[in-house]
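Researcher: Quick test of sequence recovery. Tokens follow.
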């Protein structure tokens, strides 16, 4: 840290004494466990999705990027319903009434969430129809929302398309005494209809108004076909959605019926798995069994067209056993995730952000021996600004190197065609001892991970599924290599998954080291995961669920004590979520002692800022940008002997108490400066950061008199400059505009 930073820290430390004196009289009367000092977790998440939606409404972003942001808000909300809302519904059904950290019962949370999510959905569709679609029209992109609006040429085209490409795939389902109401699959798009039998003699429909004459029928819009259909024509692109083509041709599916009405509908089901690991004889088979149950989970949300026929609505509510408050009447196309595909239309490059290519770092440029490079010094990687390829090469070289004896790795989420999986399989075939922990309980990746686990076992890898009752969320690789000096251990530690696809979209930190103390700790981690051994102590790593939370609390308390003694103190923490009550209380206590605390939190934050006498010294900001902020970084001033850590854990009870997580130190001084620089630049962001106010709202920064800075654009430009001075010729490739990728609630 430079001298100015040290002076600032000392000033902060001395002023904390006066702060302490001013508050000492009142501290005894403050109950930091009081629910009024906390925000509700679920409502805080809604605010995060609102921030993503704000990017879709931001006129400074290119049109295609705005469409992407809107698509992401929809996919985020889907997962929120399937897991978080579903979990609250389970609590209510079980009669669970214990208040949360903010003093809200599950019933109260559902009530407030129902209001908040309806408002969010209204804003989503207002953004699409009032803002984005008019802009699309101006740019020559015509989205036809109703098949009635097709011209004669287009009608002929879609009818031919239906018969050739769609009709053979569809399975119309009628409902009567011999054909029960069909299974409506989770997240599937369907068209529900009321039909009436035709008179056999005249072939004319019985169009009387007797309800008994009308029967329910439905057809699922096939997910295997493109949802966006491009229509012929000149000048721009005209597209229509697949469900509109099917709706137009519904009578061809029910030849003996007259279609009275037809409307699209879509459901969300409870997708949270309940796995009794202690009783499961085979965890892999038990998870496979539970995955099948997802399609039968309770209906948590029902989306329908806003003008849906009342009788058809009544049938859906009854047969799906759906509550009225779970119905979302939509003024526009259902399931806005299709907008991500719409953004893939060829051309329109001027409506997109310029692509950024992750940069190669000098220490690990192509052709270099990775093990030799790591022996020289620890290597830090900042993704996606620096390429993830060295991590793939690290595994590949280890798989081929005759001196490598063993490879051990944890896998939480990997890509569909993972080169790391292929390298691990090759290593086993080459006679290496390969141990892989595949986390089968990684939400929505369970099926994918089961496939990888079986493939690795077939290749000869020793595959384990972790500790009973815990998810293994840590990101660690250990390579054991025989060298002239003896056995040496090479370790990779990261804040993100071993996923080469998301590594281009998520911001993460990775460390490659052959530090002997860390190598010993890495061995202890894998021995703990594969057997029953529990180390008596750790050299450098801190591991959840037994040790990590205490480590954080001690580090926070140390800053508090330093502030009380007039020493320099400061905390900077970058996490995805903060909702652990013990951590929040410790931060409040540190703030009350005068510690300056800056929190960079992408999503959920249950801590309240601006509480007089409690959180005056705490700031919370969220950065929503081109890349998904995923790295976890922790800075502690420590009276001038600053410490920096990175890890896989957020400050959430599940991460600190119910998962295997790893916190690792950044020890080399030059790497410390790099990591501190990352935090410093993020704290100076004026374009994509929002600051939480005392009411819990996230406000954009007033730019007057400030430098205009997007931290993510700055990191892109720094990576290019660092890689090669010749890249100055393409300086304009990076702009300040942003894009956040489709995410899961991790």
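Model:
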């Amino acid at each position: 840290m430079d001298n100015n930073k040290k002076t600032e820290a000392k000033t902060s430390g001395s002023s904390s004494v006066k702060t302490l004196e001013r508050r000492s009289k009142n501290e005894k009367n403050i109950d930091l466990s009081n629910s009024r000092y906390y925000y509700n977790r679920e409502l805080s998440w809604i605010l995060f999705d609102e921030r993503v939606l704000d990017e879709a409404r931001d006129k400074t972003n290119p049109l295609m990027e705005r469409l992407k942001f809107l698509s992401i808000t929809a996919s985020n909300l889907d997962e929120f319903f399937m897991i978080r809302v579903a979990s609250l519904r389970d609590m209510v059904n079980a009669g669970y009434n214990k208040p949360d950290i903010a003093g809200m019962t599950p019933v109260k949370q559902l009530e407030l969430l129902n209001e908040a999510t309806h408002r969010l959905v209204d804003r989503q569709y207002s953004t699409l129809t009032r803002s984005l679609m008019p802009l699309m029209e101006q740019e020559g992109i015509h989205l036809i929302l109703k098949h009635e609006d097709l011209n004669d040429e287009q009608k002929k085209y879609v009818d031919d398309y239906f018969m050739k490409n769609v009709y053979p795939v569809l399975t119309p389902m009628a409902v009567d005494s011999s054909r029960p109401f069909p299974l409506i699959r989770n997240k599937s798009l369907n068209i529900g209809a009321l039909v009436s039998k035709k008179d056999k003699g005249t072939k004319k429909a019985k169009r009387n108004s007797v309800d008994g004459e009308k029967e329910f029928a439905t057809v699922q819009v096939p997910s295997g076909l493109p949802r966006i259909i491009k229509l012929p024509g000149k000048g721009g692109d005209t597209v229509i959605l697949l469900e509109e083509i099917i709706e137009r041709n519904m009578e061809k599916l029910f030849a003996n019926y007259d279609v009275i009405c037809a409307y699209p509908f879509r459901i969300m089901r409870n997708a949270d798995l309940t796995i009794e690991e202690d009783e499961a004889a085979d965890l892999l088979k038990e998870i496979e069994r539970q995955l099948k149950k997802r399609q039968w989970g309770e209906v948590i949300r029902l989306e329908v067209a806003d003008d849906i026929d009342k009788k058809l609505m009544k049938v859906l509510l009854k047969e799906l056993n759906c509550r009225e408050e779970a119905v979302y009447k939509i003024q526009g196309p259902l399931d806005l995730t299709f907008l991500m595909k719409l953004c893939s239309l060829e051309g329109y490059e001027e409506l997109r952000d310029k692509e950024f290519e992750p940069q190669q770092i000098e220490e690990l440029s192509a052709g270099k021996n990775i093990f030799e490079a790591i022996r020289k010094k620890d290597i830090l990687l900042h993704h996606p600004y620096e390429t993830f390829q060295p991590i793939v090469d690290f595994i590949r070289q280890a798989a081929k190197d005759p001196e490598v004896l063993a490879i051990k790795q944890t896998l939480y989420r990997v890509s569909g065609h993972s080169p790391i999986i292929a390298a691990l399989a090759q290593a086993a075939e080459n006679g290496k001892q390969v141990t892989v922990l595949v986390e089968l309980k990684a939400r929505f990746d369970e099926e994918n991970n089961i496939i990888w686990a079986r493939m690795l076992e077939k290749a000869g890898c020793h595959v384990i599924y972790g500790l009973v009752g815990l998810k293994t969320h840590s990101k660690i690789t250990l390579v054991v290599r025989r060298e002239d000096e003896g056995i040496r251990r090479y370790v990779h530690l990261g804040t993100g998954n071993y996923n080469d696809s998301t590594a281009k979209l998520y911001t993460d930190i990775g460390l490659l080291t052959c530090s002997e103390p860390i190598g010993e700790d890495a061995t202890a981690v894998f021995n703990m995961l594969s057997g029953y051994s529990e180390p008596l102590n750790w050299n450098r790593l801190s591991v959840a669920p037994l040790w990590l939370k205490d480590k954080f609390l001690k580090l926070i308390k140390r800053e508090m004590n330093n502030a009380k003694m007039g020493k320099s103190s400061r905390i900077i923490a970058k996490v995805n979520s903060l909702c652990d009550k013990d951590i929040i209380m410790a931060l409040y206590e540190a703030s009350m002692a005068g510690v300056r605390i800056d929190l960079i939190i992408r999503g959920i934050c249950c801590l309240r800022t601006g509480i007089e006498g409690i959180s005056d010294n705490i700031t919370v900001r969220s950065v929503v940008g081109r890349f998904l902020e995923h790295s976890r970084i922790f800075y502690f001033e420590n009276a001038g002997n600053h410490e920096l850590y990175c890890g896989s854990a957020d400050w959430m009870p599940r991460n600190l108490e119910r998962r295997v997580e790893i916190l690792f130190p950044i020890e080399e001084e030059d790497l410390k400066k790099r990591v501190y620089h990352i935090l410093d630049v993020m704290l100076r962001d004026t374009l994509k950061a929002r600051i939480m106010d005392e009411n819990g709202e996230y406000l954009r920064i007033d730019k007057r008199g400030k430098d205009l800075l997007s931290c993510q654009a700055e990191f892109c430009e720094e990576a290019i400059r660092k890689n090669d001075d010749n890249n100055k010729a393409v300086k304009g490739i990076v702009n300040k505009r942003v894009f956040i990728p489709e995410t899961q609630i991790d």
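The CA atoms of residues 166 and 246 lie 8 Å apart.
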